[in-house]
Amino acid sequence: MNWDWSVIWDYSPRLLEGAWLTLELVGLSGIFGILMAVPLALMRASAQPLLKGLAYGYIFFFRGTPLLVQIFLIYYGASQFDAVKDSFLWPILKEPYWCAIIAFTMNTSAYSAELIRGAIQAIPHGEIEVADALGMNQLTKIRRIILPRALGIVLPAYSNEFLLMLKSSALASTITLLDITGMARTIIARTYTPLEIFFAAGMMYLVMSAVLIGLFRLMELRVNRHKYISREG
Amino acid sequence: MLMDLQGFGHLLLSGALMTIQLALASLAIGLVIGLLGAAAKLSPSPFLRIPATLYTTLVRGVPELLLVLTLYYGGAQLLMWAASFFGYDEYIEVGAFAAGVAALAIAFGAYATEVFRMAMLEVPKGQWESAQSMGMSRGQTFFRIIFPQVWRLAIPGLGNLFQVLLKDTALVSVIGLNELMRQASVGSAATKHPFDFYLAAAILYLALTLLATLVTEILERLSKPELRGRRA
Question: What kind and span of H or E run contains B137?
């Protein structure tokens, strides 16, 4: 097999451009995803049957279907309705960039909501009783006790979900976006060196996951510092 | 009607059938890879342990779509290179189904390796020793004593992985295999009703994942002798 290192070298700037887009997609969807996941998790854990049912249906749909279907439903599906095409949403929905972000956001929010719900339910009951005993109202309790404690519990699991999202972001290439995978496919169409370029793309994903794993470790050390610092400290 | 498939419904069903075949073929190969991988990871020999660790780390860090694309566009080159060592220099072609199954099985196998490894670690070492003292060979011990317990411990994890695999089959549409997702694209292009077709595909995927959950639960029940024969 003739393996051509030079093609990797020549096209690495283009692949790095793709890596930037991948980071952008994953970063934005991650932030929006959490913003959506927290209310979803609270809904899912609530006693109100309507709220609970809505959250359940949403989570069930987005976890039970392939991300590719979700992307296509938004990117291609939206154009079926004239009402959508005439609305103020169309400038957003006709852009593959925003469609990818919407699909990733909705997808990751469903998975994260389940993680956050699990974390909320894992908070020792005594801590919530203590908050009640101190006379905190519902909102203060959520803000100062439940969410910070849930964050510490959820982080290890969430870092997993975030890495899965990094990998899923390769699907952006199916709607013409030039993320790492999309860029690799365009390069290969020109150079006919699939193995070299896909290898380089794979390495980029590996490096990004390694860095992200490190960042999440640091964050976890910080959030859960009460567990790691000795009492004299 | 909300969803009018304009006579393309059978297309989706044939696609779903292909999706099932793809998932089951990948599952079968992936399970074998997972068992071998777990055995290699737990073996005392570094020549087995290091490659197995490398395999799981690399594959779990790379997008499944990239694996599918690599094996489809580069699979022929890889195979011809491998075959040249055996003196075979003819042209080899890799079809979409073969590339898809290979990619999905490799991805599934990497995660299954971890599930099996954890399950194998759960079975106490003393059981190997006592089986040996009863005069069983290593193979007999594995198949009669260890594997049934490993299987039981691994089923919930494997069930989750199969759900992921089922959804990942959609990726194979990107290389043109006529599975569910691809057939939905064909239908939506012909009718200009993409939303209806992708929604129908989504509902079929939901049905498949539900079915998979059900089968996993049945297998879980069957693997626990104490629950066998008891009503749910």
Answer: none
Say if CB A160 and CB B160 are below 8 A apart. Answer: no
ipTM: 0.90
A153-201 pLDDT per residue, tens: 899 899 999 999 999 999 999 999 999 999 999 999 999 999 999 999 9
- Chain B residues touching residue A209 (CB < 8 angstroms): 61
Q: Which CATH number fits domain A5-228: 2.160.20.10, 1.10.150.120, 1.10.3720.10, 1.50.10.20?
A: 1.10.3720.10
CA distance linking residue B159 with residue A121, whole number of Å: 24
Residue of A nearest to B63 (CA): A167
Is B19 within the bounds of a domain?
A: yes
B71 touches chain A (CB under 8 A): no
Question: How far apart (Å, rounded) are the C-alpha atoms in residues B22 and B197?
Answer: 21
Structural domain includes residue B3: no
Question: Number of A:B CB contacts under 8 A?
Answer: 116
pLDDT score of B230:
59
Which amino acid is residue B110, in one-letter code?
A: A
The alpha-carbon gap from B75 to the nearest alpha carbon of chain A, in Å, equals 9
- Chain A segment 49-68 residues within 8 A of B by beta carbon are 60-61, 64-68
Q: Is B6 on the interface with A (CB under 8 A)?
A: no
Q: How far apart are CA A30 and CA A44, in angstroms?
A: 20
What's the domain range around B46? Answer: 9-222
User: Using the beta-carbon criterion (under 8 Å), do A194 and B69 form an inter-chain contact?
Assistant: yes
* Percentage of residues of chain A with pLDDT beyond 70: 98
Give residue B168's identity as a one-letter amino acid code: D
**What does the angle CA A199 – CA A202 – CA A205 come to, to the nearest 5 degrees?**
155
The total number of structural domains in chain B stands at: 1
Confidence of residue A207 (pLDDT cuts 50, 70, 90): very high
The answer to whether A107 and A60 are in contact (CB under 8 A) is: no
B185 contact residues in A (CB cutoff 8 A): 72
Question: If you measure CA to CA, which chain A residue comes closest to B184?
Answer: A69
Residue in A65, A171, A181 closest to B205 by CB: A65
Partner B contacted by A176 (CB < 8 A): no
Is the pLDDT reported for residue B226 higher than 70? yes
State the pLDDT at residue B1.
46
| pTM for this model (two decimals) | 0.90
Residue A16 C-alpha from the chain's centroid: 21
Q: Does B202 reach chain A within 8 Å, measured CB to CB?
A: yes
Chain B touched by A69 (CB under 8 Å): yes
Q: Is B92's Cβ below 8 Å from some Cβ in A?
A: no
Domain assignment present for B230? no
Q: Which residue has the tokens 């859960």?
A: A224
Looking at this protein, which amino acid is placed at residue A38?
Answer: V
